[in-house]
């Protein structure tokens, strides 16, 4: 009989390396025997930007995919029940680990990217994301019940950039948004293990065409990693919307799982993703994007894929004891 407990702790350590909005890491895990339960940590929800908890659940869905992948990398098979108890909405999934097959090459290769993957907050090199590579990235999301809609037309790209930039202007002028950003963007020199650290974003954001405004995590104080100068001007990369056919909590979890699966595949090819959630955090703009660019599918994230124009930036995660409770 396989000794499960040490393996399952390692699986949770993998799960926490999922991306999350402002690196809030809004998840908690309970380990009991061969079962891992995933819960949303509502204290870490962005009350201003994410009042319904949609992005919180997308983040938790990404952690859930890491959990499933980590189990398969251990030769275990995850049996997942999404939202198992309607009376406990923050209980997002029960995952039972049962004996499975030895991991195949695909599983091992994807699992190897879990702690290498990083979010990007700048421009991309001119190296294109080739159609076969993009097709593989897109197929990963579809395996989880989500899909990507690529912006190909220059006017669509420009419109999405303009909506993002308008939302960024609105949020910068709204004190409650600004306060929330400040809460999750600590000053250099601290010891926090969450939030957007100053080493995880560039000191200056290079201009791209079209240009997508980045969040001002430094709040005008000049924090951030030093830019890497390249001979060629940076590009915006491939612009995509991650969408689902409906817009319920289960869909948000599926979107997160599809997102993470795609991000790990992209990381295998050396690509990274930049996230632009501003326009989807303003209900009127999200509705406009849905109607005009998504064919009535529900947009969950706006991303750019490409080859990073900077060195790999840093990230932090909370220690295991802060996110894991172990039962009998």
UniProtKB/TrEMBL annotation:
<dbReference type="InterPro" id="IPR050627">
    <property type="entry name" value="Nitroreductase/BluB"/>
</dbReference>
<protein>
    <recommendedName>
        <fullName>Nitroreductase</fullName>
    </recommendedName>
</protein>
<dbReference type="GO" id="GO:0016491">
    <property type="term" value="F:oxidoreductase activity"/>
</dbReference>
<feature type="region of interest" description="Disordered">
    <location>
        <begin position="185"/>
        <end position="211"/>
    </location>
</feature>
<dbReference type="InterPro" id="IPR000415">
    <property type="entry name" value="Nitroreductase-like"/>
</dbReference>
